[in-house]
Write a structure and sequence with these properties.
The structure is a homodimer. The first copy, chain A, is about 35% helix and about 25% strand. Chain A is of the alpha/beta class. In chain A, α1 runs antiparallel to α3, α3 packs across α13 and α11 crosses α13. At the A-B interface, α9, β8 and β9 of A face α9, β8 and β9 of B.
C-alpha cells in the first residue's frame, strides 16, 4: 500500500491558504478572480514540475495529466474545486485538488506503473458564490446526462449570463473570457475519454469525528426537496390595531415552524431539514407583517422518508391565527448513488491501509454528484472538526487529510489495475 | 352650531386624491416631491381665494392665516400633513389639512366673528417615508421643548442630512433648498405666537367603527417602548448537520415569539405589541441561521402596564434550543396627554352637535404629539373603515369626515371665544 508524503501535503495546504487569505483563519477565493488565477498558477507550476501535461477547457476546468502506459485506454480523473464561499475555510474543495496533486506526486516519486492516464482536475465555480448557482460548471459539462428537471436549470446560455452578486452586472461569460485559463471545449471531461472520477472532500458535518473514524466511504448524495411555505395575513398599523383584530403573518409563521419541528422530529432521526431563508413583508417595525415566507430544505437518502416529510408540509393547517398558509414546491432531487465498484475500491483501500472508516452519505451537493450521471464516480470524505465548514473555523488535522489521500491513491491504482 | 359644506369637502377629497394618484385607489405623495408641491399649490390657491394670508417657514411648513379682530392675540392653528407613505391612502394626513381648509372656508362663508387669527397649517414630512424619520419636522420645530431622550433624536443637523431612501444620496436639506415653499425661520409655529393647535386625523384603527361612533375625542398618544430581541445560534450546513447538533436561531426565535404572545396576552387587552421587523443571518436556504433578531414595539397608555410587558421580555429564557437569547432596549417614550381644556372643547362640541363620539387614545404617532410639548394641543379622530390605513383601501365616509370637521370648527370657535 502506498502513502502520500505528509510534508508535501502540509506545505500545499499552507500555501493554498495564503491565496485569498482573509487574515481571520480562512479565505475568500471566488471563481474566476485573481485569487482563483493564482491558485491555478500554483497548481500548474507543481504539476509541470512532475511532468504532467496541462490542458484547460472552454469553461476553465483544468487538467494535469500523467500519461499511462497504454495510450488507448480512458483516463482516470481525480477532481475538486479551488474556489470558496466568502470567508470560507482552507479545506472545502481545495483539499480535493491537493489530494489529486499529492496522488500524482506520489505516483511519480514512487515510480508507480499505471496503464491509464491519471488526471488531477480543477472544476470551475463549484461554490457559485460570486456567479450563482452552486455546482454550476459540472452542471454544464454533464448537462445532457442529467435528469430533465435538473438539466433545464443548468442550461449553457443561462449559466453564461449569471451575474456577479457584487456588481449585478459582470456576467460569468465576461469573467470567463478575461480568465487566463479559458481553453477549448474539446478538452472537457467526457464519457468518451474518461473511465472514472474520484473526489476527496471534507465531510462538512460532525459524523466521522463523532464516530472516531478517519475516512468516510461515501455511498450517495442525499435526495432533497425544497419548498416555500407562506403565511398571508393583513398589514395594519402597529399602534392602532387591537390584538384581537390582527392577522399577523410572522406570529402565524412562528407557529408553523414549531409544528414543522414537532411533526418532522417524529420521522427517522437522520432526516435533516432547514428553514434558512426568510422573507418578511413589509418588514417595518410599525407594521404588522402581511406576508412571511420561508424556504425549507429537506434531505434524506430514502425517497419514502422524503415523501413522509412532504406529507407533513402538505398537511399543515390551512389557516393559523387568521392567516392563510400556502405550501409550494420549488425543486426536488433524487438521491444520487455512487458507482458500486468504485465505492468498493475505496472501502477496500481503507481496509487494507488499516484506517478507521465507515460508509457515509453526503448531505451537501458536490460536482461528483453531477459527474456521476455521466461516468462512474465516487467520493472520499475526511473528517471536519466540530462539523464546521464554510467558515474560518473549518479544519481537518493533517494526518486525517493524509489518510483520505492514501485511500484515494490506492483506490485509483486498484481502478487502474482492474480496468 | 356651525357645520362645514359637504360638497366643498367632497370636491377637496377628490382633488387631492388626484395629486400623486397611484391608480390603484390610493396615492404616493412623498414630502418635498413634485406631488407635494402640487398639493401645496392647490392649498395656496384655495386659501388665497378666501382671503387668507400665505406664509411658509424655513422647513417648508405652510400657514394660511385668516386675521382675527384682535391683532394682539395669539393665533389658533389647525394642522396636519399632506405627504403620504408609498402607496398610501387618500385620508391619512390630508384629511387634517382639508379639515383646516374647510373650517376657514366656513368661517369666511358664514361670516363668523373671531378674535384670534385662525390658521390652517401643513406640516412638512410627517411620514418620513422618503426622508426618515417620521414626524421629523415637528420634532425639529418643537425640539427644545421635547424630553431629552426624544429631542436628541431630532437634532436639526442630523435631520437636514437625512438621505433619500430612493437614491441614498439626496439629503432632506437639498430637497428643501430646491422646494418652492421654503421660507424663513421667523414664520415657524411658536409658543410666543400661537395659542393652541388642533389636528383632525383618521383613527387608523377599528375602534370607532366597532363602537358605531362618528367622532373620536383623543385624550393621549400612547407611550411606547421598542426592544430588539436576538437569538444567537451557530451557522452550519443544511445538508450535513444532524438535527441533534444544531443551534438554529430561527427555530429558537419562533419559540420566543410564541412565548411572547403567551405571556403578553395575559396583560390588559388594550396592550398592543408588534414584531414587525426581522433580521435573519445569513438568510441562505442551505445554511442554518446563526442569528435572528426581531424588533418588538409595545404600546399602552399606562406606564405600569408597559413595565409589566418589559418584565416579560426581560424574563424570557436566556437559552432556547441551544441558542442564546438577548434583549436590548432601543427607545422608550412616555404617554403624551393632550391639553385637558382643548379636549373638553372637542368633547362639548361633539355633544352639542349631537354626534356619536367617545374618548379614544392614539396608538399612532402624530405631529400633534410633539406640538403638545410646546403649546396646548389636541386631536379629533374620524373612523377608518375596517381599521385600514397606509394602504389603497384606507377609507372614511364623506359624512363622517364632515362630522369630524364640524367638531373641530366649533371647538376652535369655543377656544377663540374663551381666550
Amino acid at each position: 500500500m502506498y502513502k502520500c508524503n505528509r510534508k508535501s501535503l502540509e506545505t500545499n495546504i499552507k500555501e493554498f491558504a495564503k491565496i485569498g487569505d482573509d487574515y481571520k483563519g480562512g479565505i475568500t477565493r471566488y471563481a474566476l478572480s485573481k485569487e482563483d488565477e493564482k491558485a491555478r498558477d500554483y497548481f500548474v507550476k507543481q504539476m509541470e514540475e512532475i511532468g504532467a501535461i496541462i490542458t484547460y477547457d472552454d469553461l476553465a476546468n483544468m487538467y494535469a495529466t500523467l500519461p499511462g502506459e497504454n495510450p488507448n485506454l480512458k483516463s482516470i480523473v481525480m477532481a475538486s474545486h479551488c474556489d470558496s464561499v466568502k470567508n470560507g475555510g482552507n479545506y472545502d474543495g481545495i483539499l480535493g485538488v491537493i489530494s489529486a496533486m499529492e496522488v500524482l506526486k506520489t505516483v511519480v516519486k514512487e515510480n508507480i506503473l499505471h496503464k491509464h492516464n491519471l488526471v488531477a482536475m480543477i472544476w470551475t465555480n463549484e461554490e457559485g458564490s460570486l456567479y450563482p448557482p452552486a455546482i454550476m460548471v459540472s452542471g454544464m459539462v454533464c448537462n445532457q446526462y442529467l435528469p430533465e428537471n435538473i438539466s433545464k436549470n443548468y442550461l449553457y446560455d443561462n449559466m453564461m449570463n449569471s451575474k456577479s452578486i457584487l456588481d449585478n452586472k459582470t456576467t460569468f461569460k465576461e469573467a470567463l473570457n478575461n480568465f487566463k485559463y479559458k481553453g477549448v471545449k474539446d478538452n472537457r471531461l467526457s464519457k468518451e475519454k474518461y473511465l472514472a472520477m474520484f473526489e476527496t472532500h471534507i465531510e462538512q458535518g460532525p459524523i466521522l469525528e463523532a464516530n472516531n473514524n478517519d475516512v468516510g466511504v461515501v455511498t450517495c448524495v442525499l435526495g432533497m426537496v425544497n419548498y416555500t411555505i407562506k403565511a398571508v395575513g393583513q398589514a395594519n398599523h402597529a399602534g392602532t390595531t387591537p390584538m384581537s383584530y390582527r392577522k399577523d403573518a410572522l406570529y402565524a409563521m412562528s407557529k408553523v415552524i414549531q409544528i414543522i419541528h414537532d411533526e418532522l422530529d417524529k420521522l427517522p432521526k437522520d432526516l435533516v431539514y432547514t428553514t434558512g431563508q426568510v422573507y418578511v413583508h413589509p418588514n417595518v417595525h410599525t407594521v404588522i407583517p402581511d406576508e412571511v415566507a420561508i424556504m425549507i430544505d429537506i434531505r434524506h437518502e430514502s425517497k419514502e422518508v422524503i415523501n413522509q416529510a412532504v406529507e407533513v408540509l402538505k398537511n399543515l393547517p390551512k389557516e393559523v391565527y387568521g392567516c392563510q398558509i400556502e405550501v409550494e414546491v420549488n425543486w426536488t432531487r433524487d438521491t444520487v448513488y455512487f458507482d458500486k465498484t468504485l465505492v468498493n475500491y475505496v472501502k477496500q483501500s481503507a481496509e487494507q491501509l488499516g484506517y478507521k472508516h465507515q460508509y457515509i452519505n453526503s448531505g451537501a451537493g458536490h460536482d461528483a454528484q453531477f459527474a456521476s450521471y455521466m461516468l462512474p464516480t465516487t467520493m472520499i470524505f475526511a473528517p471536519s472538526i466540530n462539523g464546521r465548514s464554510h467558515c474560518d473555523e473549518e479544519f481537518t488535522p493533517l494526518e486525517q487529510c493524509g489518510k483520505a489521500i492514501d485511500v484515494m491513491l490506492n483506490a485509483v491504482l486498484r481502478c487502474d489495475k482492474d480496468n
